[in-house]
Amino acid sequence: MFYRPEDGHGLPHNPFNALITPRPIAWISTRDGEGRANLAPYSFFNGTAYVPPQVMFASTGQKPDREGTKDSLANIRETGVFCINVVEEAMRDAMNVTTEMLPREVDEFERAGLEKAECESIDCPRIAGAPASLECRLDQVIRLHGEANYITLGTVTGIQLRDNCLRDGIFDVTTFRPLSRLGYRDYAVVENVFTLARPDD
Description:
CATH class: Mainly Beta
Domain Flavin reductase like: 18-173
GO molecular function: FMN binding; oxidoreductase activity, acting on the CH-NH group of donors, NAD or NADP as acceptor
Mean pLDDT: 96
Strand content: 35-45%
InterPro entries: Flavin_Rdtase-like_dom, Split_barrel_FMN-bd
Number of domains: 1
Shape: globular
Pfam family, one: Flavin_Reduct
Low-confidence stretches: none
Protein name: NADH-FMN oxidoreductase RutF, flavin reductase (DIM6/NTAB) family
Number of helices: 4
């Protein structure tokens, strides 16, 4: 099968997201200029550099009360900071609660029953008890083709690691089984880990 996206695929559901899997989930916490917290997951997300550590996520779509974007990006533009929380399998239902499109004044931490903690290096809330949290300062927002498509780039200014996720000096993902996004409404957990040595090691 071959199709051109502009012509449509003719399938019951768009296969595009199912082709780029698994995708890590950035559970992004922000605070707006009036001090209201927001929490939402984004699966177009990744690290982009080691030194200094940098990340990116893409926001697509918009809300009627946010003038062409969503709460997360609007808040980041106001404050210049955001926090990426790592999603573990045990928090999957809470994460799913925060996918709901809600009015900007609703606090998703409270709605999902999650405890807040303050970040150390930026003025932003994070999820208390998350396996890891990356505190980020905004570098730039890039407008993409299409309506309400943006990439946000940030530099990591602080990293929180949950103590029980460290084993022999290594951040061990098997201790919390990270959640990843597949296509459609499907998710997966990391449970099969193996090591490959590079040929030049």
